[in-house]
Write a structure and sequence with these properties.
There is one protein chain. By secondary structure, the chain is α+β, with helices and mostly antiparallel strands. The protein has a single domain, classed as Jelly Rolls. 25% of the residues lie in helices and 20% in strands. It is built from 6 helices and 15 strands. The strands form 3 sheets. Strands 2-3-11-8-13-6-5-4 form an 8-stranded mixed β-sheet. It is globular, with a radius of gyration of 19 Å. The N terminus is likely disordered.
């Protein structure tokens, strides 16, 4: 096995301090194209998400995971993919990176975009209510505030992403009028130093959708696989996010941008917490090769696909609750 390198100087760092200005978006676009066309990962620094907002969501996650097991299991994952996911209940069977046979050694609480009962989508696949622990006053408000801040942040990223792909700045907006979003509050218990090589907090995989914006604590454990097979440690940088391309964005760009394999092993000796936010297009969106990413010499590598169909296929294979009668 190739020993992982320290990635602090290998994953690009993109400063978002000027996000939303013409000059800033142009500079960010250039940096995005270089990072996502290379390793498919980057650190985002100076984001609109304040240190207080970051601290609040970590505190909310720790409060939830400190609940008794019975309280957490009372809101197990429902059919709309919202709720508590106990340890060792997901196996990444759709991994294109490795043959995964062991479940992930982690637990999490999953929230998705809010769908009101009067919304025409209500009751359709993945379009239903979130679940909330009754034992934690203020928890719902804290989580929804962070979700709203992250959605606003990701919407603001759509313009420099479009510019990076040689598209009009507003090109992507219609695909995200009703985005599919996931906020996952993850807890990784410490793994023993002698854990088997194929035991992971999160087994090698790529993400399904558009982009993932990850807030991680200082424990370490996330690793990213370079094209040459070397695993790089995504060493935490205080206040920053680790952002990566998902399968749908790689498909949309005809492979110009990379959906890169990554994995987690928590060998810190303590608990690890992370809060990945997945920002994806509307489930009804058709993902066909972007016009700027194909030509006669570079034809589309994939047929068009509905994002919702692609997503459901992967959830149905990877999560045991979806296979129960």
């Amino acid at each position: 096995m190739r020993i992982a390198m320290d990635a602090a100087q290998n994953l690009p760092i993109i400063d978002l301090g000027a996000l939303g200005t013409a000059e800033g978006d142009a500079a960010i676009a250039r940096a995005l194209d270089a990072a996502f066309g290379g390793i498919g990962f980057a650190y985002f620094a100076n984001t609109p998400i304040s240190p207080a907002q970051q601290a609040a969501i970590f505190a909310a996650s720790r409060r939830f995971h400190a609940l008794p097991d019975a309280a957490k299991r009372a809101i197990d994952m429902n059919g709309f993919h919202r709720g508590y996911m106990a340890p060792k209940t997901s196996v990444i069977q759709t991994s294109s990176v490795a043959r995964v046979t062991k479940p992930n050694f982690s637990e999490s609480f999953m929230f998705m975009h809010e769908v009101a009962e009067d919304d025409p989508r209500f009751g359709m696949p993945l379009q239903g209510p979130n679940q909330w622990p009754a034992e934690l006053p203020g928890f719902r408000a804290e989580v929804l505030a962070y979700q709203a801040a992250m959605e606003d942040f990701c919407r603001r990223l759509l313009r420099p992403i479009a510019l990076a792909l040689n598209l009009p700045p507003d090109f992507l907006l219609p695909f995200f009028e009703k985005p599919t979003t996931f906020l996952r509050l993850l807890h990784y218990p410490p793994q023993p130093p002698d854990a088997a090589e194929d035991e992971f907090g999160s087994a090698p995989h790529t993400d399904y959708g558009f982009i993932t914006v990850l807030l991680q604590d200082m424990s370490g454990g996330l690793e990213v696989r370079r094209a040459d097979g070397m695993w790089l440690r995504a060493t935490p940088i205080p206040g920053s996010f680790v952002v990566n391309v998902g399968d749908m964005l790689a498909r949309w760009t005809n492979g110009r941008w990379q959906s890169t394999p990554h994995r987690v092993k928590n060998l810190s000796g303590g608990d690890r917490y992370s809060c990945p936010y997945f920002f994806d297009m509307d489930m009804a969106s058709e993902v066909a090769c972007l016009p700027s990413c194909t030509s006669a010499a570079n034809p589309a590598k994939h047929p068009p696909v509905l994002y919702g169909d692609y997503l459901l296929e992967r959830l149905n294979k990877n999560y045991s609750y979806r296979r129960q009668a």
